[in-house]
Amino acid sequence: MDLFAAPAGFIRGAGRDLQIGIEEHMKIWKHFVTVTRHRNMVLKHCIKAGIIWQGLRHDLSKYSPSEFIPGAKFYQGTCSPQVKEREVYGYSEAWMHHQGRNKHHFEYWVDYDPVDHVRKPVKMPLRYVKEMFCDRVAASKIYNGKDYEQSQPYAYYMRGVKAREIHPETAALLEKMLRMLKEKGEEETFRYIRNLKEEDYES
Question: What is d(CA 105, CA 129) in angstroms, rounded to the nearest whole number?
Answer without folding.
Answer: 8
